[in-house]
Design goal:
Length: about 325
Amino acid sequence: MMTFEQIIDNLKKKTYQPVYFLMGEESYYIDQITDYILDNVLTEAEKGFNLTILYGKETDVNSIIMASRRFPMMSEWQVVLVREAQNIKNIEDLVSYCEKPLKSTILVVNYKYSTLDKRKKLAKVVDKNGVLFESKKIYDNQLPAWINQYLKRHNFTITPQASQMLADFLGTDLNKVANELDKLVIVLPAGTQITPDHVEKNIGISKEYNIFELQNALGDKDVLKANRIINYFGANLNNNPLVKTISSLFFYFHKLLTLHYTADKSNASLAAALQVNIHFVEAYKRAAKNYSIRKVVEVIGILREYDMKSKGLGSTASPEDLQREMIYKILH
């Protein structure tokens, strides 16, 4: 199965495949491949006769096959794009076309938020005669590296702190992350190393009052700083919802537990075990000195308790009050 980078590289070389079956939970890569084909295979003049767009709720396999078997008019290629193909019944019936696809047709199937059964014939045939691509959801710990690579392709670098700020604030919706990164790419000179100051000025994420700084404050047992940040969160709940804060802190303290149980305490080994940039390992080591295994387990229990309370189970307190109570219990 080809990677996203391999597919785009081949498209740039005009090495086209007759079928692109793009499936999976992460829509970003599916959209990127689809948009590249739409923008680059046909000229604007050619699109009038040679671009067909179908929608899963309004079409069926027979209609897709009929459209794909047409020959292009005054062009080397025709493109048939099927959006929302996950809504098509009997999608496996497309195998009859994919076994002998028309070489002058580029059939692009968007099968978002779902995947084909790779044990069945359609997946095997597409993989043999075209491109079967699964766009997998990215994990939280993979996002800083993804941000680094995205910016590198645009001739930018980013500090570990700034990358983590963006990852913590934006989450794993890659379309959203890419849109925010593009703001930085547009306004900053190529070659710039992006810092927390750049992120604060252009994205609007506070470099002082964010989940990354809250984790550091808790790790260092800095009561004053932790309370300042949590009070800021309480006054800005739209950007800092309690459920998101709890989730981020759960992963942070889970990493502290992992650190305690990792035999090799070298920075390189811990960076791999914690799945963090090696730049942050010393901060985790300091935090581990402030939180014993027993205390970490207690904190994880506190977070679970307040996760339930945040959902209205066993408490009628406001999110602001719940946050303050939770941070107090963690620190004491």
